[in-house]
Design a protein that fits this description.
Alpha-Beta Plaits, alpha+beta, five-stranded antiparallel β-sheet, 4 domains, Beta-Lactamase
């Protein structure tokens, strides 16, 4: 981009004098035009440096109309040759130039406008050719990066190298990290609006932004710093080409990802859902993922969007193979035995409260055991609702491993009814079950039990007598406590925990 400041450094402008509009020297120049008519502005396209002798600018009204036309047309500046028509610079022109930051340059001696025009226009054409060469080089590097599948990080770096300015890509998906090339003291955004074409913004600092779009969906925003309030055309074009390349790279990655998922699904489904998968399925899985004696795995079952935030970490932790279903997401994580064993604790540290219902199988090394691992992970995911803990590994389920592995009617027949049948169906069933649950948890302190229940101790003793009448005098003995605790867990599982609520109020 050639500016008025650049032109003033040219040899043919050594005798020129800037008399107004010093704050507008950043204005770009795209051509030179000679014109004296008062309505010249309507014949300009913008960014022209206008040369005039003042032959038609003899009166203030004409000069004002002429000058206002140049400003409205977004001309770059005015060059005046002082002499027979304008012996001095009129005060009104100086005032208007300073008021609108519009440079006014004068030659106090005769000058050949042809020499000025040829010099500046040749400079403009030369720079335009250099810009085209730079853009062609940028396009070549972008094509190479796309063909070599170097990813969005390389594309942003190429943009920064090409325009010699810090560049930034801000994905709209909050789980993806920004991509920076150069120093950004403070990240802008996030942005909600869409910039289909490069636009100049000033928050928090002057920069140019363009939104990367794929099928009318905004993926992110590409930004470059812009120290000047005017944007070089080269920056606009480079930004636009890089945004298009980022969109192409995303489409490529999405296509490859869909293909990879289809292949993974074809490999996983027989192993996950068949109790005895065919030998060739096992061999294909072992060959593709290089299963050896030092490799182990766990199966993960979660809600569809449970692990989105930690997927990049899981992929760096080991090899993550995924299978999406309508109501759940299934993953198999392959890694060293040490990593696989520590996965539940690591995943809890990563996921925090974001994993609402994620179950993890026990560690396995033989792909032939994947069906069993899938059952374990599914059971662990189901148990998160009752244990209120997620992610949850199968080895952490305790009695729930037995409860989840037993048919519901057998739990009722063999455990719930023999232990709790005397309480079930009574009007005070909920109160007695809750009292029993708290007693089993605070067996050594009736005071703690009554505090948790929110009742007086005399009321608690009355309930204990009722429970003894219904369950037998030995209901708090070690063996009965174990059986009753298991029965309460099974009842909570079968009836979704409804009878076991929080503390009570009052003595009733």
């Amino acid at each position: 981009m050639i500016t008025v400041q650049d032109v003033l450094q040219r040899p043919c402008f050594q005798r020129a004098e800037l008399v107004a509009g010093q704050t507008g020297l950043h204005r770009p120049i795209q051509w030179v035009h000679v014109g004296e008519v008062p309505e010249l502005g309507q014949f300009l396209r913008g960014h022209e440096l206008v040369l005039a002798t003042g032959v038609s600018l003899q009166t203030p009204d004409v000069r004002t109309r002429y000058f206002q036309g140049l400003i409205e047309a977004d001309a770059s500046g005015l060059v005046l040759e002082l002499g027979e028509y304008l012996p001095t610079v009129p005060d009104d022109i100086v005032h208007l130039g300073n008021q609108h930051a519009f440079p006014v340059i004068v030659f106090r001696e005769p000058v050949r406008f042809l020499d000025l025009s040829q010099d500046i226009n040749s400079l403009v054409i030369s720079q335009h050719h250099r810009m085209l060469d730079d853009l062609e080089m940028l396009s070549l590097k972008i094509r190479q990066a796309l063909l070599n599948t170097e990813g969005p990080e390389r594309l942003v770096a190429i943009l920064a190298e090409s325009i010699q300015r810090p560049s930034l890509y801000l994905p709209r998906e909050t789980s993806e990290a920004p991509i920076l090339a150069g120093a950004w003291p403070r990240l802008p955004g996030p942005f909600d609006s869409v910039a289909l074409n490069p636009e100049l913004i000033f928050t928090p600092a002057p920069m140019v932004r363009q939104t990367v779009m794929v099928f009318e969906r905004p993926l992110g925003d590409l930004l470059v710093t812009n120290p000047s309030p005017v944007v070089d055309e080269r920056v606009y074009l480079a930004l636009d080409r890089t945004a298009a390349a980022l969109a192409q790279d995303f489409i490529r990655r999405e296509s490859l990802d869909r293909r990879r998922r289809r292949e993974e699904a074809a490999l996983l489904e027989p192993l996950l859902f068949d109790e005895a998968p065919a030998a060739h399925h096992l061999q294909r899985f072992r060959s593709r993922y290089h299963i050896g004696p030092d490799v182990a795995y766990r199966v993960l079952v979660s809600e569809p969007r449970d692990l989105e935030l930690v997927r990049p970490r899981l992929q760096s932790y080991g090899t993550l193979i995924e299978l999406d279903q309508t109501d759940r997401h299934i993953g198999v994580l392959l890694a060293s035995l040490k990593k696989v064993r520590g996965l539940p604790q690591t995943l809890r540290a990563w996921a925090g409260s974001h994993a609402r219902a994620t179950g993890i199988s026990g560690p396995y090394s033989d792909p032939a055991d994947m069906h069993q691992a899938f059952i374990e992970a599914n059971d662990a995911a189901l148990a998160t609702r009752y244990l209120r803990r997620s992610p949850l590994a199968y080895e952490e389920l305790g009695l729930y491993r037995w409860i989840l592995g037993t048919p519901r009617h057998q739990l009722e027949r063999w455990l719930v009814q023999p232990e709790l049948g005397a309480i079930l169906g009574r009007d005070d069933q909920e109160r007695l079950l809750h009292t029993l649950d708290v007693l089993l948890q605070h067996i050594d302190s009736k005071q703690s039990a009554s505090a948790v229940l929110g009742i007086h101790r005399q009321t608690l003793y009355a309930r204990i007598r009722t429970l003894a009448d219904l369950l037998g005098d030995d209901f708090l003995s070690p063996d009965r406590r174990l059986a009753l605790g298991a029965a309460l867990l099974a009842f909570r599982f079968l009836h979704d925990g409804m009878p076991l609520k929080g503390g009570e109020r009052g003595d009733a």
